[in-house]
Amino acid sequence: MAKAIQGYVTEAVLADRTSGAEPAVVIEELDDLSSTDDENTATSAPPAQSTSAASSRTNGPSLPSRPAGLGSSSSLSQPPARTVQQVRANGPVALDRGSHQATEDDGDENDEIHQKLQMIRVKFLRLAHRFGQTPQNMVVSQVLYRLGLAEQLRRNTANGTFGYDSARQIAERLEGVGNEPLDFFCTILVLGKTGVGKSATINSIFDETKLHTNAFDCSTKKIQEIIGTVQGIKVKVIDTPGLSCSSLEQHHNQKVLNSVKRLISKNPPDIVLYFDRLDMQSRDNGDVPLLQTITKVFGASVWFNAIVVLTHAASAPPDGPNGIPLSYEMFVTQRSHVVQQAIRMATGDVRLMNPVSLVENHSACRTNRAGQRVLPNGQVWKPQLMLLCFASKVLAEANALLKLQDSPIGKTSRTRIPPLPFLLSSLLQSRAPLKLPEEQFCDDDDLEQDLEDDYDSDDGSEYDDLPPFKRLTKAQLAKLNKAQMNAYLEELDYREKLFYKKQLKEERMRRRMMKKMAEEASARANDYSNNNPEDDSNTPTNVSVPMPDMVLPSSFDSDYPSHRYRFLDTPSEWLVRPVLETQGWDHDVGYEGLNVERLFAVKGKVPLSVSGQLTKDKKDCSLQMEVASTVKHAEGKTTSVGLDLQSVGKDMAYTIRGESRFKNFRRNNTVAGVSATLLGDSLSAGVKIEDKLVVNKQLRLLVSGGAMSGRGDVAYGGRLEATLRDKDYPIGRMLSTLALSIVDWHGDLAVGGNFQSQISAGRASMLVGHANLSNKGTGQVGIRLNSSEHLQIALLALVPVFKNIQKLLQSYSESI
Question: Where is composition skewed (Polar residues) in this entry (predicted)?
Answer without folding.
Answer: 527-544
